[in-house]
Amino acid sequence: MDKVVVTCALTGVLTDPNQHPVPVTPAQMASEAKAAYDAGASIVHIHYRNQAPGMGRMPSWDPDVAEAVCDAIRAACPGILINQSTGVVGDDISGPVACLERTRPEAAALNAGTLNYLRTRKDGRWAWPPMLFDNPVDKIERFAGVMRELNISPECECFDLGIVRSIGMFVDAGILDAPAHASFVMGVASGMPAREDLLPILVDEVREGTSWQGIVIGRTEVWDVHRRVAELGGNLRTGVEDTFYLPNGDKVSGNGPLVECIVGIAREVGREPATPAEVREMLHVAG
Fold first, then answer.
1. Which of 45, 145, 154, 183 is 20 to 30 A from 101 via CA?
2. Distance, CA of 268 to chain centre
């Protein structure tokens, strides 16, 4: 069978743990990572949360928190690959860099372009104040340089077609090494919609040899897109950062059932989840 890399996005950025089943503490993160690992995930994508009482909804770039989370995950799931978020608004990247330097994850998300991060309510009001998720080339280059120095594999997150096309130019300019790794982020309200018919266009625009995965955000509509990703040879990602809903519409209790569903889809189209050792070879990851 063809092998597929399965990633679990464990918690997300600002989701309220009082309302949704998102892990916050190192022990919770390790438990959810183990459930995902046992279900077939070889990579966990992680965000760090503030550990102060009542502050678990807020992000953290405290290297001590990062170290505690990564150590707990590695102890619970020997061999699993860690992919750390690096997304920050503004020019100061010192927080994500400090966490990368402390924990040395195998991979890290590299936001590969700028997005107006928008959403409106039914009455036309903004769901939050319009925000610019700014990722200019000089910021991307600084992140990529740190990742190269630390031997961390960049995972280029792409919110629109232009960002997908930019990855090849980053390789040409020496900012990224080939082969690059691209993620098509679909379902953000002001980015690419979660539509399976867009996938062949996106795949056609990545350079030959570039590995790619779908990051599909939404409700039950995400599962048809995941199936098409698997059919087209892409890698798969799910987790409570991306959806809270199973294909039948039931709300999940955690990450394990989501990974079980996406692995089931992969097997239905003739693909088998890669082991952590196979992922390291497939994605040219050190370690």
1. 183
2. 23
Q: Residue 79: left if φ>0, alpha if ψ -120 to 50, beta else—which one? A: left
Task: Assign 51 to helix, strand or coil.
Answer: coil
181: its two tokens? 């790794």
> What's the token pair of residue 61?
């770039």
Selection from 46, 14, 18 nearest residue 255 by Cα: 46
Which backbone phi and psi does 103 adopt, to 5 degrees?
A: -100, -20
| DSSP single-letter state for residue 107 | E
Residue 39 host element (H or E) = helix 26-39
Query: Is residue 31 one of the residues assigned to a domain?
Result: yes
Task: Assign 46 to helix, strand or coil.
Answer: strand
The pTM of the whole model exceeds 0.85: yes
Which whole-number Å values give the CA distances from 120 to 71, 117, 216, in the listed order?
Answer: 39, 11, 19
Burial (CB count <10 Å: 0-12, 13-18, 19+), residue 14: exposed
Q: Which domain holds residue 172?
A: 2-110+136-282
- The single residue listed with the structure tokens 């280059």 is 141
- pLDDT computed for residue 287 by the predictor: 59
String of b and e for 158-173 (b: at least 16 CB within 10 Å)? bbbeebbebbbebbee
Task: Say how far apart CA 159 and CA 193 lie, in whole Å.
Answer: 9
φ, ψ at 4 (rounded to 5°) = -130, 135
Q: Which domain CATH number covers 151?
A: 3.20.20.70
Q: For the chain, how many structural domains are there in total?
A: 1
pLDDT tens digits along 29-65 = 999 999 999 999 999 999 999 999 888 889 999 999 9
Instruction: Tell which phi-psi region holds residue 81, choosing left (phi > 0), alpha (psi between -120 and 50) or beta.
Output: beta
